[in-house]
Amino acid sequence: MPVDEDKYPVESDRRRFVKGVVGGASLAGIATAGAAAVNSTTSSSGGGGGSVTFRAIENTDGPAPRGMPQIPIELEEIPGEDDAYIKGRWPEVSEVEEQGKTIKVAREDIAGETYSSEWFQYCGVQTYPGVYPDATEENSDLTNYFRYNGNSKFTWQNEEVSGGQKMKLSHFSDYETWGNGIGTAGIGKPASGSWRSEGLEPSETMAIEVIRSSRIEEAAQDNEWLAQTTDSGVMAHLNKCTHFCCVPAFKGQAGAESFGAADAVYCQCHQSVYDPFNIISTNFVALPRPARD
Ligand code: FES
């Protein structure tokens, strides 16, 4: 896949990271297909790729080929507190026969649609420990809580919470007024973090973004899918640009205003734009998870 180096930001760490992921993902797609075929009789964890219909925050501009996958969320009440943890819901794990092999899959029906781990299998994420269907059973450190990352693009996050802390609903209580000088205030409050990635290397971290917005709250009132996959106006998505795998942000880059994306999720690498308030059904070809021993 050709990479236009001129379009990458000059900051060298990001540039190396992006190039590494792109190369790795491209090669892994070829290599792991072979590995899965060879090792399928000795492992039940690999596989799971192919054409997948998924829910995405819509891609509205730029070179990205499709939207980024939504992560259905759930709130877990905190005993003794009038508050709740925000968690990403993981699909139910089961064993199925596919092409003569028994494999584990994470798939479940939500509002008549199939939610599966395959939604997240692109950009190298298909190799991350957290994307394996039974990851949290095999690695008790991994959980479905959303946790903040350190050094966020959001000042509020850097000042009020710390990296590794679980996201709580109360942290977003000012969502109807919050603003940071980028775009319109009061349309949604974002945070960046990780999911199913505790204790793993940064290169294995499933980056996520959470937004709490009255627009989501209103849309969920007459939309069964949103009613079951968002709560109290909170929605989430896997934060990997479908173009070349950068990490975008909602109101995280002042430069977004130049591209009409001040009120959208904007990827600074090549100016792709996503609308977090338009969650659509679309499809792509998911990469297979490499087989493991
Ligand atoms: S990585 Fe190219 S637009 Fe996001």
UniProtKB/TrEMBL annotation:
Coiled-coil stretches are none
**Entry keyword annotation includes Transport:** no
Region (Disordered) spans which residues?
37-68
Q: Which Gene3D superfamilies match?
A: Rieske [2Fe-2S] iron-sulphur domain
Molecular function (Gene Ontology), one example:
metal ion binding
Q: Which InterPro entries match?
A: Rieske_2Fe-2S, Rieske_2Fe-2S_sf, Rieske_Fe-S_prot
Supply the alphabetized keyword list: 2Fe-2S, Disulfide bond, Iron, Iron-sulfur, Metal-binding
Rieske domain location, by residue? Answer: 208-293
Q: What is this protein called?
A: Rieske Fe-S protein
According to its UniProt entry, this protein's organism is: Haloarchaeobius iranensis
